[in-house]
Design brief:
mainly alpha
Length: about 270
């Protein structure tokens, strides 16, 4: 119970921290909504040119894929998080190591608080805007919604694990802009943000899902919501997300433990 209260307190502090950036929140929600229109018209044009279906998605499913994806972009948060790398560069990470809670746990709790705040402020506006102008797909199975919620939570954890590992490169490199740029390019393309991964050849889709955590960031939650696959397949995809989330958190702890053994605080 003390550990849970500490975790909950840090999560709450994450909500309060990100709730202070009100102008950035409004600007981000507006930008995501505008890009939702652009992406939706492009995908609908693709479906229309393919006889109403594209890679197994019909027009309402593609519209839902776009608008919910625009909302999830800020919840899952692929880019823009450099907290750990910045603290490593300045040497402030030394104070993190003196705290009674593990750095991975502390940063994860803060990130979950950020995601919770983003659900209310960045997820809701695009999802409410889409149905005003397009026909969206509504799930036909009652189990889809709770499975989607679990999938989104796992996507946040997977994203955090990937971002933490990229930031942790700063323990060994003085400048992490290179790894950050590579992560930005790879995550956007391979997570299903720019286009559904089902547009790729089947062998490429299978390789990405089996060998990388990227589809679990956006593609899996969105496919679960639009019911692109049978129920058993959707459950299997969420189970794969759970496996990747566990592996990435273990990797974060292993990297952090190794970094602490060879830590040199730069500038002090």
């Amino acid at each position: 119970m003390p550990w849970f209260r500490t975790f909950a307190a840090i999560t709450g502090s994450g909500v309060r921290r990100y709730s202070t950036y009100r102008q950035a929140t409004v600007a981000g929600a507006f930008t995501n909504t505008v890009f939702g229109f652009l992406r939706c018209y492009v995908f609908l044009a693709v479906a229309h040119g393919s006889g109403g279906m594209a890679a197994g998605y019909d027009a309402p499913q593609l519209a839902t894929f776009v608008w919910v994806g625009q909302g999830l972009l800020a919840v899952v948060l692929l880019w823009g998080w450099t907290d750990l790398a910045d603290r490593i560069r300045t040497g402030d990470v030394a104070s993190d190591l003196l705290r009674p809670i593990h750095p991975v746990t502390s940063y994860l709790a803060t990130d979950l608080g950020r995601a919770a705040y983003a659900v209310l402020t960045r997820f809701v506006p695009p999802v409410l805007t889409g149905p005003l102008f397009f026909d969206l797909y509504l799930p036909t199975h009652w189990s889809t919604v709770p499975l989607f919620v679990v999938s989104v939570l796992l996507a946040v954890v997977i994203s955090f694990g990937c971002r933490y590992l990229v930031n942790a490169v700063g323990y060994w490199l003085a400048d992490v802009r290179g790894p950050m740029t590579l992560w930005t390019l790879a995550s956007g393309v391979l997570a299903g943000l720019y286009f559904p991964l089902r547009f790729l050849p089947d062998w490429a889709v299978l390789l990405l899902w089996a060998a990388t955590p990227f589809p679990g960031l956006l593609q899996t939650p969105l496919d679960v919501l639009v019911e692109r696959d049978p129920p058993a397949t959707r459950l299997g995809l969420v189970a794969l997300q759970l496996a990747w989330a566990g592996l990435l958190l273990l990797a974060c702890r292993a990297v952090q433990r190794r970094a602490e053994r060879h830590l040199v605080v730069q500038g002090g």
